[in-house]
Amino acid sequence: MKRSAGWAAIALALAAALAAAPARAADPGYYVVTVYDDPGVRNLDLRYWSVKPKDGHAVLWPEIGLGLNTGRWYTFVLASWITGRDTPTELSTLSWQNDYLLTQGQWPIDVAVHTLLAVPRDGAGPKTIEIGPALQTDVGRTQLNANVFLERSFGSQSEHPARLKYQWQVRHRWRPWLHVGAQGFGESGRWSDWEPDTPSHRAGPALFGTLPFTDRKLTWQAAWLHGKTYGQRGSMFTAYLRTAF
Question: pTM of the prediction?
Fold first, then answer.
């Protein structure tokens, strides 16, 4: 309990630092929020994702994050850098994610409340917050996820109306070292006005796995997506490596 309280204090301190940071337009992260109960486990994530427009150069976001699972509550802080052929490497965004489990196996579908606060660093845009339900269930050896979030910007003269976002994932546990599946993401414009030229949707295959590493496990994931990102057609690659300790 003391260990959990200590990590909660660290998370709150980081959140306070985020709130004091200058803002820019938040980067659109692409990792499916999953619901799980693993009390006492801390994790270190090394993440990477890229967006390549159809007729342009790829923009890259290397990231590092630290998380803690207390059972019902999962909290995670993430630092994102941005780089690319025409983009100097710089710290782009700091984020604080919190997921709270409402159910723990008593229903066919597990439900969590997800929140994410993203604070850009260069003062050129607003902070953003997203909130909504994260759903997960298992059908045999296949895990299914479906999430719907509202995202709203604030703290800037360039505030935007709330927009609806969604995520889905199918993951079949073929072998411990290799799971196969697919992912999809999208933004459907303003939650109250789904303009036909605004929605963006992308989807593609995904691979997952767990590898033994001394007395710990390394969990990995990679996905390649194609479609539109905020109205611009192109492709996206996402990956992360996670170790629990």
Answer: 0.82
Whether the Cβ atoms of residue 103 and residue 110 lie closer than 8 Å to each other: yes
| Residue 18 predicted with pLDDT over 70 | no
Judge whether 161 and 192 are in contact, CB under 8 Å.
Answer: yes
Give the count of beta carbons closer than 10 Å to the beta carbon of residue 141: 10
Q: Which amino acid is at 69?
A: N
Tokens standing for 158? 């360039």
Q: Say how many CA atoms lie within 13 Å of 216 toward its Cβ.
A: 11
- pLDDT(189) > 70: no
Query: Is the Cβ–Cβ distance between 52 and 234 less than 8 Å?
Result: yes
- Residue 36, class by beta-carbon neighbours within 10 Å (0-12 exposed, 13-18 middle, 19+ buried)? middle
DSSP 155: S
The per-residue DSSP string of 18-47 comes to: HHHS---PPP-----------TTEEEEEEE
Given a contact cutoff of 8 angstroms between Cβ atoms, the answer to whether 139 and 171 are in contact is no
What is the C-alpha to C-alpha distance for residues 163 and 168, in angstroms, rounded to an integer?
Answer: 17
Helix (H) / strand (E) element for 105: namely none
